[in-house]
Amino acid sequence: MYVRIRRPDLQELNACFHLDSRFETQYVWQMEPQQTEDNFSVTFRRARLPRPVRMHCPDIEDTVFHHYRERQCVLAALSSDEKQVVGFIDLATKPWESFAWLHHIVVAPEWRRQGIGAQLLKRGVGWAKEQDVTRIFAAVPTKAYPLIRFLQKYNFYMSGYHDDHFSNGDIAIFLTALLR
Predict the structure, then answer these.
(1) Residue 108, φ and ψ in degrees, nearest 5
(2) Structural domain boundaries of the chain?
(3) Are 136 and 179 in contact (CB under 8 A)?
(4) Do the strands 172-178 and 135-141 form a parallel or antiparallel pair, or are they unpaired?
(5) Residue 155 contacts by C-beta under 8 Å, 6 or more apart in sequence?
(6) Taking Cα atoms as reference points, which of 15, 14, 29, 18 lies closest to residue 151?
(7) Which H helix or E strand runs over 121?
(8) Alpha carbon distance 101, 172 (integer Å)
């Protein structure tokens, strides 16, 4: 699918905020800590849910607008006629850091599974390399199974977790992609 990816103008940025970020999953990554006197380990196991769960990306507008004003990597994917925003990516870094955080990657439901997320991620990685970033981190809820699988497909690996990371108490799995 051909889309044009570029920094959005303010009207297109507003359209990014209104994209449907909801997704449905029947799987989660279940955390299983194990501790003995000599050992501590944590396993994440894929678990099937009894019924699908509907999730969405919270806090998009404030975070993305802040990164946009700071001239971070906020890119929109526009339909080939450039009349419709169909997705966006939000990556940010600080000048003193050699890494970037992937905060959001959203594709409108009717445009999913057409390679648009991959194109956005590729452009975001290109931006990160231009900033001399050596790795990209993402904090992903364990319930965001489709996003975790998507990022794993593009060489992100599990590099840690935090068991109370999100405001709703969800566990975050930290995924990392090495760029060099």
Answers:
(1) -55, 140
(2) 4-35+42-178
(3) yes
(4) antiparallel
(5) 177, 178
(6) 29
(7) helix 116-130
(8) 14
How far apart are the C-alpha atoms of 138 and 103, rounded to whole Å? Answer: 7
What topology is assigned to 4-35+42-178 in CATH? Aminopeptidase (3.40.630)
Whether the predicted model's global pTM rises above the 0.85 cut? yes
H or E segment at 28?
A: strand 23-35
Residues paired with residue 78 on neighbouring β-strands, in sequence order: 4, 85
DSSP class per residue in 62-81: HHHHHHHHTT-EEEEEE-TT
Distance separating alpha carbons of residues 75 and 122, to the nearest angstrom: 11
The CB-based long-range contact list for 145-153 (8 Å cut-off, 24+ gap) reads 145/25, 145/26, 145/27, 145/28, 145/29, 145/46, 146/23, 146/25, 147/23, 147/105, 148/29, 148/173, 148/175, 150/117, 151/102, 151/175, 151/177
What is the C-alpha radius of gyration for the chain, rounded to an integer number of angstroms? 17
pLDDT tens for the 180 residues of the chain, in order: 789 999 999 999 999 999 999 999 999 999 999 999 999 999 999 999 999 999 888 778 889 999 999 999 999 999 999 899 999 999 999 878 899 999 999 999 999 999 999 999 999 999 999 999 999 999 999 999 999 999 999 999 999 999 878 877 788 999 999 997
